[in-house]
Input
Amino acid sequence: MLSHHQIAAATRIGMLTRERDTASACAEALRELARALPLDAATLLALDPLTGTHVQVAGIGYTTETSQALAAEFVTTPWYRNVVRRELPPSISADTEDPEEFGPRFRNGWFYAERVRPAGFRDGVTGALRHRDRLVGLIHLNTESAGAYDTEARHLLASVIPALAAFADPVARAGELHALPERGAASLVTAGSVIDLPGRDRARVLGDAEFQGLLRAFAGTGGRRLRLLWPVGGAWYRVTLHRHRPGPGITPDAVLTHETPTELPYGLSPRELEVLTRAATGQTNQAIAQALFLSPRTVHSHIEHVLRKTGAASRAEATALAVRDGLLRPGPDHLAFFVER
Output
């Protein structure tokens, strides 16, 4: 039977999922496990969504290099496949399990003989981390004591695996970290790759070549956030770009892109939005006319329409409104004026 101490530790691990600092939460979760279960070493590994390799996010007694090198070898073995298909994490000491059903016992294999036993470990347990039906990592505990991970200990580990999986999933909390609205498509974009967020459709704007250029330019600014409006296939979208915090499998230049369908605000036309965007950069009517191949009189007329539709009393008030509310359709060369830092 689980002790009160073990149940309390499992509860504290579950509560850590509320923490915004994932790295600290992962480290604290392993410390709680060390209070509840016998362990001399432990590693929590996230599955990199780009490369498919395992990356250590927290460890006790394991260096990052050692943990990741061992994981790279372990995933090639039949014991890894056994771990992945088991709900109850298997252990080295699980002699009662049927070899015909679960394959050769880990203790009789080369990985234990050549990697685990020489390090002084007599027992270990490994669990596959799943989050929202996706395999997202591994948890592995080792101890110098033989027979430490009995069925009860493994059930305790299984009970906290959902929380550990939430920590290890590099994309699970992206929306929460940036306080995204519940509705709307969202994707994480890194150099050359798009990572779909659980429960979210992929942002449609990412299929637009011109928008991709804007996204690359935003990533290069070092800015924190950019709000804008963008057309795709005859529809308009309100788009927000967020610089995403680096994490396992997520580079420092990753950008979280969120979009929701919208109508152009205030009844603005696409051309009026374009004129307003350029006015917000400080361009004169003459400069806007040259850039858009319009006459200065036409630009003046567009500005008058913008003032009337938005209810702004002046050009300065209209441009302040545009920046404040993201009423912008910028190009890459405009970002210095609009990126929030």
User: Anything to note?
Assistant: The chain has 14 helices and nine strands. The longest strand covers residues 134-143. The mean pLDDT is 88. The CA atoms of residues 132 and 198 lie 7 Å apart.
